[in-house]
Design goal:
By secondary structure, this protein is an all-alpha fold. It has one domain: AhpD-like (Up-down Bundle). It has six helices and no strands. Helix 3 runs antiparallel to helix 4, helix 3 runs parallel beside helix 5 and helix 4 packs parallel to helix 6. The chain is globular and about 40 Å long.
């Protein structure tokens, strides 16, 4: 399996288990997250890029991978992604660099994947 497939399979499998636990609070948190990134006054691409930058600054690799995947699905270009990486690293400082490396690697992996049909 690829880096992207491994992450997506694990995330999907664990999210299903969490939802199957039928915990109302967790379901509401997941729903709030989904609704937050829906198109609104701020377009969805911008929201995902903001989420990515924040995730990099907070150093959450799973969140970074998720937002990178959404950005790729929404058509964010390599040049746009480089700007997001720059902003996140500037705001977060050098401690973000290891996460920048993994984000860069994952973005490359997403770029080499076959498009979803």
């Amino acid at each position: 399996m690829s880096l992207v497939e491994d992450f997506n399979d694990y995330r999907s499998r664990m999210n299903d288990k969490i939802m199957d636990s039928d915990n109302l609070i967790l379901k509401r948190i997941f729903n709030l997250d989904t609704n937050c990134y829906a198109p609104g006054e701020v377009d969805q691409i911008t929201k995902e890029m903001i989420g990515l930058a924040c995730s990099m600054v907070l150093r959450c690799d799973d969140c970074v991978k998720y937002h990178l995947g959404k950005c790729k699905e929404l058509g964010v270009s390599d040049k746009q992604m480089q700007e997001v990486f720059s902003i996140a690293t500037l705001i977060g400082g050098t401690i973000v660099i290891p996460h920048l490396r993994r984000a860069f690697e994952y973005w490359e992996a997403l770029s080499s994947e076959e498009p979803l049909s």
